[in-house]
Request: fold
Amino acid sequence: MPFLPILLLHVVLVAIFGILLPYRRGIGFLDPVMVSAYACMGLIFSAPAAVDAFAKSRPQSMKEVFRRVGLAAGYGEGLALLMLMLGTVTINFGRRGRPRLPELDILAESGLLGIAATAAMTLLAGWMTLRFSAGRARLGTRALLFFLLLEFWLHSARLPEAGLAGTGLSIVISGALVYLLYREVHPH
Reply:
């Protein structure tokens, strides 16, 4: 895909989720559920990036696997952080008095969950691409993202409380996926 349409898509996404939605929500943007959801948005962007990174060529070492995973996860987390920061700036723009910020404990726990879940999703996308194909990896990660979105829709109030437990689960899943990726890279 050419560079300009991709750049335009990113600008539109950041404008919608970093400016328009926070502007419409106002101070409600800082609700713990909303902050937690934004902190976890990185996995939406990192999964397709990981599929693309692993579809180009088969990694020859775990160092190369971790580099690809790190770049894809960093891309997803960078977009999530940008939208969360821009949203916070948006709701404070033109306000008098002290700035309104997300609750730090919620932000910290949700941030850890977002990073851990993004790492797990990125590792999963990479493994599925190597084990099956890029098409199946895209389908599998989309199905998982749909399931997570459905879970959020049904139980969104629980997301801020699930930060540390979800982080632990994501770390365990990531460990298993690192092992599976190792077996794909070094099959003997």
Notes: The two ends are 37 Å apart (CA to CA).
